[in-house]
Amino acid sequence: MSRVRVLAGTRKGAFILTSDGKRDGWDVSGPHFAGWEIYHVKGSPCEPNRIFASQTSGWFGQVIQRSDDGGKTWIQPGTPPGEPTTGPGGMPKGESNKFLYDVSKETGKPLTTHQFYDGTQHPWEFKRVWHLEPSLTDPNTVYAGVEDAALFRSTDGGKSWHELSGLRGHGTGPRWQPGAGGMCLHTIILDPKNPKRIFIAISAAGAFRTDDGGETWRPINKGLYSKYIPEPTAEVGHCVHRIALHPSRPDVLFMQKHWDVMRSNNAGDSWEKISGNLPTDFGFVIDVNANEPDTVYVVPIKSDGEHFPLDGKLRVYRSKSGGNEWQELGKGLPQRDCYVNVLRDAMAVDSLDKSGIYFGTTGGQVYVSPDGGDNWSAIVQNLPPVLSVEVQTLA
Amino acid sequence: MIRVILPPHLRGLAHIAGEVELAIAGQVTQRSVLDALEARYPMLSGTIRDHVTQQRRPFLRFFACGEDLSHEQPDTPLPEAIATGAEPLLILGAIAGG
What we know:
The structure holds two protein chains of two kinds. Chain A has a single domain, classed as 7 Propeller (Methylamine Dehydrogenase, Chain H). About 3% of the residues of chain A have low confidence. Chain A has no helices and 29 strands. By secondary structure, chain B is an alpha+beta fold. Chain B has a single domain, classed as Beta-grasp domain (Ubiquitin-like (UB roll), Roll), CATH 3.10.20. Chain B is built from three helices and five strands. Chain B has a five-stranded mixed β-sheet with strand order 2-1-5-3-4, covered by helices on one side. Classes of the chains: A mainly beta, B alpha+beta.
């Protein structure tokens, strides 16, 4: 029987939640890396027991961890095979923690600067890894989206990282600026049909696409309207919170922007608004049902100033028509006095016959719906604030 | 031997139970102590000082013999009591956040 493994990153460690395909009884393991912020944990689609984790701290910086046994044991990549990972004689190398921005090949100077909160230009400074995206086909290749916004790639299992600096260097960098959460590259989508195509999104710069494997990039923000920036239809500067697609139809993208839920039918060349009857179209997460390419989920949040659900009721909204018509789903979710948030990397879908939907909250709950959103229950209720949720469907 | 006391999160990362003892040839400075520490525990590279600039991470402080040495130059000799091992060098995380 199939199983699912939910990988939850929290403010104080990682948790692994496992269940059989019924998804009504759960084993909880953790905290892994107790006390550290775990921004993201994600498994390799082609080697599911290989899992990457971004372990980070405002005090101590960035650490990359990897498990090759489904999360039972962890190493910092770079430990020579067969050597112990503890004790002074067999320490792993620290190189997996090193994220160095490219500099100009001609001058040796920084590639570009970005706009700071006060409107002045500011140099790029590495802070943390927000998102890890393992390759769809090669277990040793993994991408990292970092703050200050840039994309890195490792082709040796997370041991060493190199920037794909065509993204930062293509010319619009000076117009990127940090959102409230920092200037982060938080979304990486590898096109399952076109290995040369990658979509990424940055707060607050917008969405970008490469069609040549990461060498060159261009903004894909036509149709976005952001009333909070000086030029609301600018090429860059939009605070995109999340993008999702269905693997069977990678040219159709769904976006939760700061405000507005958007859809593109042409791989981001243009966007249209699909907020329809949502009670508020501010939010962070968006995802697509694994079995129904036109079934989309969002969690509406009251406003940019009030990051919690409307009226104290936690509700997921589902559109079965690819947007515009949205249905409220709250069965099993708290319907009074609920003032949590659902952060941008904290929703996931499994690919069982009846797709399971998962999301985590800043109140420490991870919820599951085993029936595509009709009914919800809490897997865990009292974790530290949840930063990210991923799920693996295992044979 | 030079004695170094690390904050709990870094002890956990490096699998260290108590104090670290380091043998240092030559002058005992912040730089020579951190070089020796990172050589023995490579996973601590980047966690105390920046990989590139080698500057102390902003939320960490260095104390010894009751004094805050955080703003000393990296090549300034540390107090004699550190060099002899009579007192440990304390690396502390600032009390901030949750």
